[in-house]
Amino acid sequence: MDPIKRRKIILTVLLITTLGNYGSISSTEDTRAVVFLSIFAIGASTALLLREILSKEKKE
């Protein structure tokens, strides 16, 4: 398997996992450190996935 495609798959699974994690803990009203870190992880995963997608398109 192509390493770039493998990274995209891993980052997609990581993003889905972080979204699921946030969905399970977002029912509380206050913003705790865990919620903040979960939101940060979602942003970081999205940024890495977009970087992988856009870098592949620039090469082609």
Features:
mainly alpha, 2 helices
Structure description:
The protein is mainly α and 60 residues long. 83% of the residues lie in helices and 0% in strands. It is built from two helices and no strands. The protein has helices at 3-25, 33-59. It is elongated.
How would you summarize the topology of this molecule?
Blueprint: H1 3-25, H2 33-59
In short:
The chain contains two helices and no strands. It is mostly helical and about 60 residues long.
Give the termini separation: 18 Å
Mean pLDDT: 80
Q: What's the number of extended β-strand segments? A: 0
SS content category = mainly alpha
What portion of residues belong to β-strands?
under 5%
Oligomer: single chain
Output the number of helix runs.
2
- Cα Rg: 14 Å
Low-confidence segments, given as residue ranges, are none
Helix content: over 70%
For the largest beta-sheet, the strand count, sense and barrel status come to:
none
Shape: elongated
Please provide the ordered H/E string of secondary-structure elements.
HH
